[in-house]
Design goal:
Helix content: over 70%
Subcellular location: Membrane
Shape: globular
Order of helices and strands: HHHHHHHHHHHHHHHHHH
Main location: membrane
CATH superfamily: MFS general substrate transporter like domains
Number of strands: 0
Strand content: under 5%
InterPro entries: MFS, MFS_dom, MFS_trans_sf, Sugar_transporter_CS
Radius of gyration: 21 Å
CATH topology: Growth Hormone, Chain: A
Number of domains: 1
CATH class: Mainly Alpha
Distance between the termini: 46 Å
CATH architecture: Up-down Bundle
Protein name: Major facilitator superfamily (MFS) profile domain-containing protein
Keywords: Membrane, Signal, Transmembrane, Transmembrane helix, Transport
Length: 436
């Protein structure tokens, strides 16, 4: 990546610092959560815990249902009321569920954690990225956005590496405490240093009765949502990328929701192996997003990057599902170096097909489409995985559910063949919401 592209990131420094600390704090808990939840819910079980798998599936389903509304809504609010307050709200929600496990890891605490984490995911999962991308689009010109988005997702991967490194070597009893401290620090830093990009000076203060104000806000939200849906369904690029995102997320969210439990059952992996696999993906992803993406994007374009990511995600799912030895999951994880480019490519295509004043709405709408997929996939993946890792499996293929999820990536790849990225025009822009 040339220095000109790095200089384009200077206005984003405070945002990136806060996001990196936040992502490190969240990632360092991922590998230990499997051991904590299975230890509390299924004491004495060494390989499988159907209760934990079903709870995770229920959590993902509930989150997906509510995110269908929350993601587009938060995107609209970020466009209208500022990126900073929405980032502060979404980033701070992760503190409370981890605080519960830091105090106690009993069965009751795990259930309380699942409830609080579900609420946290509804508000923050996906929305942090959408609002951050909208913030970046406010400050970076269109021609440099793909590289900039690649750097943001690359730093996301770097944060995952650091988080997994800390998880690998920190004692388990300190992981949640350190995570909470980092989450609090990232929120305070964002509050102190982030500069708002949405101009709020033109918004007159209005004094009106509570009922009238509530009704007016509901009307604004409905009008904004209706206009957003209308434009995204009439724009061929945005409609096609919505289909691609839906089927991609349907497969990948299904895999990610059960992957660690599958690896624990099939190969006896624990916290250390989980951290190693996640670090394999993270280290390679840093290079592919920060260095490789800006180099290849001018030659193959956003659509070419999207194709490469989809093909890699297909190989990723199939290799995990067909894994025949302990080293195969590490090989499969290496494909994450390429499929991770799916996010910046998608963000760039959406951003370039949308006018600058409505980045949050467009990103939030497509993220809402993805959330539909994320709540549908556990309905199939949780019982299917639980069946095939148990002794009652109809045939010996513990990764059969992951193979089924890979079919969804094939459908996404077919839709990508018809994708034609476009620049926003009068018919492709998203109208601003009507404010009464």
């Amino acid at each position: 990546m040339d220095m000109g592209n790095f200089r384009a990131l200077y206005p984003l420094v405070h945002l990136l610092v806060a996001l990196c600390v936040h992502w490190v704090a969240e990632e360092m808990t991922v590998s230990v959560l499997v051991d904590v939840t299975t230890g509390a819910l299924c004491p004495g079980e060494e390989t499988s815990c159907p209760e934990a798998i079903y709870l995770t599936g229920i959590q993902q389903t509930v989150v997906g249902i509510f995110k269908m509304v929350m993601l587009p809504l938060l995107g609209q609010l970020a466009d209208e009321y500022g990126r900073k307050p929405l980032l502060l709200i979404t980033m701070s929600t992760s503190i409370f569920p981890f605080a519960v496990l830091a105090l106690n890891a009993s069965r009751t605490s795990v259930y309380v954690y699942y409830v609080l984490r579900t609420i946290s995911f509804i508000i923050s999962q996906g929305s942090i990225f959408c609002i951050a991308i909208a913030y970046a689009a406010d400050l970076i010109e269109s021609s440099k956005r793909a590289g900039a988005f690649g750097c943001i997702t690359g730093l996301f991967s770097a944060s995952h590496v650091v988080g997994n490194f800390l998880s690998r070597f920190l004692p388990e009893e300190y992981i949640f405490v350190v995570s909470i401290i980092l989450l609090v620090c990232s929120t305070i830093y964002l509050k102190l240093f982030l500069v708002e990009t949405v101009d709020m000076t033109s918004r007159p203060s209005q004094r009106e009765p509570c009922f009238q104000m509530t009704w007016r806000i509901l009307q604004q939200r409905w009008t904004s949502m209706r206009d957003t849906v209308t434009v995204l369904t009439t724009s061929q690029t945005l409609k096609r990328i919505s289909f691609i995102s839906f089927f991609y997320e349907l497969g990948m969210s299904g895999i990610s929701s059960v992957l660690l439990y599958y690896l624990k059952s099939a190969f006896g992996f624990n916290k250390n192996q989980f951290s190693e696999i996640l670090m394999v993906v993270g280290i390679g992803s840093i290079f592919s997003q920060i260095i490789l993406l800006p180099l290849i994007n001018p030659f193959i374009g956003d659509r070419g990057v999207l194709f490469a990511a989809l093909i890699s995600s297909l190989a990723y799912g199939l290799l995990y599902g067909l894994a025949w030895a302990r080293w195969v999951p590490y090989l499969s994880a290496s494909f994450g170096v390429v499929y991770i480019l799916m996010k910046p490519a998608t963000y760039a295509i959406i951003s370039k097909a949308t006018v600058s004043d409505n980045q949050g709405k467009a990103q939030g709408f497509v993220a809402g489409v993805q959330s539909v997929a994320s709540f549908l996939s556990p309905l199939v993946m949780s019982p299917l995985t639980s069946l095939f890792i148990s002794d009652a499996a109809p045939f010996d293929c513990k990764g059969f559910s992951l193979i089924c999820a890979s079919v969804s990536m094939v459908i996404a790849l077919c839709h990508a063949c018809y994708l034609t990225p476009e620049e926003p025009g009068p018919e492709g822009s998203i109208e601003a919401p009507l404010l009464s």
